[in-house]
């Protein structure tokens, strides 16, 4: 059972006066960053051996013996022990001016920890400042960022990966192994998660370390009897992608929400910065508070604080002035609210901090949710993760249109882009395809390998992991595939055709094996050999064999399998599409299949509500408006290729280089230059206006693209998500040229997005 943590205890204490003056804004144009090298935690400071830090005092940590000269920042777990007065601690680079920010807030006598990511100062030092009274400080080093070769970061919306309340608590001296093998790739070197302790029967500490290594003399989370307390943890990953958690005293329940992982082969780099106050609801910075409970979440825009190529941020979030015990959740704008997760647990009378790593969705901002009562929130930005822009190499991909679930692959945090922008790190591409809303996109490289980017909730990336609402803003390798000649996808289920005629599938399934499995790595389809073409619809898939027959599997809604069966439930193993032979190429719409035979005739089957069959049949409202067997598309005798635009419109490339369209005409989807009402359809093919010399076509849902022999790309249809790559109008009734791409050799499309290889 998934649920957020709300402490039941009412703990009195003095309110810490967190400074309200915002720090000067740093430039929001960072384009490069550092990679991460994790380590098993090592203690680098413990003032209990030399004496506490006094009021207004500082202590330096010399990290020269622990990190290389190329290091730019470190990840520390900083613990304050038994302060004699309510105080706050600030961690900052050695040699720099102390910022107006706090890293750790404590009441008299308590022990509290907080993870701090801080830029290194002169001679690889950091300083810790204590505001009031005397306090002992302890710091454990979990890793460093640097310019040397290291690991990149992929952020995730909070994913609950542990809740011992569903099982049993950790006992005194007990260890729980956290298995992350389903939610991070095999190449992962470290993970970041929010660790929460609740219902401890004694004051205790919890240590996280890589499984298989010796448990270090370090702690990540300190919690007092009866409290609920979180702390962000960045930990090296151990054997079999596991992390061990140790409890020192009593019994305690633990919860863990995964917020990202580091891996050397893809992701974003970290850019540290001096802490910048981006939120203080007491002073009206960012939002005006206090924040009320429940209801709609509170948006915090960060567009002026971070650049467009930022994929996420590191914050120190502090809750003060709570009217009752509550929890606060932070998540990226453009991602789904993680109802079962929490970021910060706050009680009345205390200032409670916790670090947070927040990944963005399509927009540079985050949402904050307060569960009960009212509370003031303060947030200091201490760094960001960025994807560095790259120049296009030969065979690179440029993308434009909707960036839903990061389907553009550019690393830019935008809702959509009208300007074709390079997909990060791709070159030598010979095919590119996109999928449906919430899905992933793919590129086949000249070496026969495949890259994927975008949504990964069902393992669509094929990289060996999946996560709730998980995405990758940049391409990742699809594991275990070589000699691939083509890929087809609906964004959630994907198939790769290899040179030997075998088909491999991954994602949501089914995969033609007789089971409806989900797989985050490619798996072979046992019943298919000698395949020459593959096409994927919404829930049905088609394979072309060398003998010119077409085979289908999946759901049979509206007769999408083309077998003549009246059973909508469909099949899991391939069955032959009825009455088709001598087929040269195939295509798929959401609920339709298409085939072109060697004599240039086109065939269609499935849904016909908007004329998708192209055979002129009307849609009687008292019938199912469908054909469960292939029917001939009217008037096409020289077709070379048929593609479908989502649910409603289909397109054919003729052998003379012209293009025909049929189906729904919404916002110019037919491209014939005719404006009509929203219900307008054409049940037979019409000519797309003004196109000649076309060598390839692709469709994006409410429109299509055409590649001409001169290397230009043309688009028509709906432009709500800037899909036509041209600022001309909200839609285009006839083809307009996509701006910013030339010498194009290959085009591709997803729902509301386009791709061009040059």
Automatic annotation (TrEMBL):
Signal listed as a keyword: yes
Which residue numbers delimit the RCC1-like domain? 397-751
Q: Does the keyword Ribosomal protein apply?
A: no
GO MF terms here are:
guanyl-nucleotide exchange factor activity
Entry protein name: Alpha-tubulin suppressor-like RCC1 family protein
UniProt keyword list: Guanine-nucleotide releasing factor, Repeat, Signal
Q: Which GO terms describe its cellular component?
A: cytoplasm
Q: Where is the signal peptide?
A: 1-25
| Organism listed in the record | Actinophytocola algeriensis
